[in-house]
Structures are given as C-alpha cells and as structure tokens.
Amino acid sequence: MNVVLLGAPGAGKGTQAAVLTKELGVVHVASGDLFRKALSENTELGLLAKSYMEKGDLVPDEVTIEMVLERIRKPDCDSGVLFDGFPRTLSQAKALDEKLASESRQIDKAVYIEVPEEALIKRLSGRWICRECQTPYHAESSPPKVTGRCDVCGGELYQRADDTEETVRERLKVFFSQTLPIVEYYETQGKLLRVDGNQDINEVSAAITRLLRTESA
Ligand code: ADP
Ligand code: ADP
Ligand code: ZN
C-alpha cells in the first residue's frame, strides 16, 4: 500500500507517520528529512536546498522529484511507502504517479490532515526534533520523557531554524498556493481521505487508521 500524507507545516504528518508506518508495515519517506540529511552531510543537494529551506520556499521540482524517486528505488520500499511532505506541487504529484504507474504501482490513498492556522503556528513554535531519528516532540502537547532527549533513540533534540514565526508564515503561504491544489487532484481520483487534525495525537491516529481500514476493506 502506498499512502500520501498531506497537510500544512505543523499539521502532524511526521507525528502520524511514526504510528502509521508500524500499523501499515510501510516505509516512511519524508522529503524534508531527506533534505535535512543532505544538508547535515554538506552534499551538493544539501547546499542547493539550503537557501530555499531557510526562506521557507520550495526546493525546485526537478531536484526534489529526483531525490524522492531515487529513494523509492531502494528495495525496502517494495512493500509500500508512506510519503510525508511529498508531493507538494502538482508536477511532483504527476511525476510520482507516472513513475509508480511505470512499475505497475500506484498511490492508493491520500490522507489530508486539516488543522486551523493558529494551531499550526503554536505547534511549530514549540516543536523539537530528534537530530538522529527525526521524531518530532512538542514542549506542551508531546514532551519527551527526558528533557532534550529523544524517547526513541536517546538522540539530542533541537529546534528547526525554519520554525521561526516569519518563516512559518511564508511556509503556510506556500502551502496554500502550491500544495493545496494537490488535495483536489487526489479528490478527483477518488483517493482523498480528510481527517480532523485538530484533536489529540492519539485521536488523529485512530481516525486515520479507521479510515484506511474501512476504505481498503
Ligand atoms: P514541514 O514540517 O513544514 O512539513 P518539511 O520538513 O516537510 O516541513 O520541509 C521543510 C522544507 O524542505 C520545506 O519548507 C521546503 O523548503 C523543503 N521541502 C520539503 N519537501 C519538499 C518538496 N516536496 N518540494 C519542495 N521543497 C520541499
Ligand atoms: P508536520 O510533519 O506536519 O510538519 P509534526 O508531526 O512535526 O508536523 O508536528 C508539528 C508539531 O506539533 C510537533 O511539535 C508535534 O509534536 C506537534 N503535534 C503533532 N500532532 C499534534 C496534535 N494532534 N496535537 C497537538 N500537537 C501536535
Ligand atoms: Zn531519536
């Protein structure tokens, strides 16, 4: 099963991905995580992505598509992928569909996690991420057991440089103008599932799992 997680920055895609990958037995592919890894390793891709990420703009489609398609070529993705943060533009969505179709695969469902704008800003300003495994935490809604340390791997937690209010506002603008059209794209294909993301983390997980079960039954 291949599933796309859609949602504004801060909607809870990374948080839900951690639950869903276990539930569905699929691999988590997060374009933002791939870019941050490239950045931390100072690769050419990382350097290219840096200036866009700092401003909250999208990295150009061509490099983004190439990076993600290369990732899903690896054999661990054969049993299914949970896409998080990709696709973010219509061209990315179409490129992904074409690639999967060429291998007789497809996107089965797209889950759109909807959260009001004020809540998104609150979530992002209190977000902490594990430097090692990228698990997201929140100072209030999802604190780690030990301050500054990841529950999963013990890695150090840090705040992303693009989670400042100014960059968040730009990222939200980009989401509404460039990414929202994809919601309609999947809706037209009959693949869209809408979930109220403005509830507790475990309630959102339960809602997504329920929908995916009913739909694929
Ligand atoms: P968020 O937490 O906002 O969903 P991500 O970690 O997914 O953030 O992305 C962080 C940044 O990485 C984006 O603001 C953008 O610059 C870049 N990026 C991630 N995914 C994509 C994509 N699919 N297309 C273009 N740029 C991307
Ligand atoms: P995204 O990947 O969509 O950008 P994250 O999963 O990183 O979003 O979540 C953004 C922030 O909000 C994190 O600090 C996370 O702990 C917190 N968060 C996620 N889901 C919820 C929720 N349902 N209620 C409250 N806070 C949440
Ligand atoms: Zn960790």
Question: How does this structure look, described?
Answer:
The protein is of the alpha/beta class. It has a single domain, classed as P-loop containing nucleotide triphosphate hydrolases (Rossmann fold), CATH 3.40.50.300. It is built from eight helices and eight strands. A five-stranded parallel β-sheet has the order 2-3-1-4-8, sandwiched between helices. Strands 6-5-7 form a three-stranded antiparallel β-sheet. The longest helix is centred in the last third of the chain and has 24 residues, at 165-188. The two termini are 13 Å apart. The structure holds adenosine-5'-diphosphate (ADP) (2 copies) and zinc ion.
Quick overview of this protein structure:
With 217 residues, this protein is α/β, with parallel strands linked by helices.
N-to-C series of helices and strands = EHEHHHEHEHEEEHEH
Rg calc: 16 Å
Count of individual domains: 1
- Unreliably modeled segments: none
Determine the structural class based on helices, strands and strand pairing.
alpha/beta
Mean pLDDT: 96
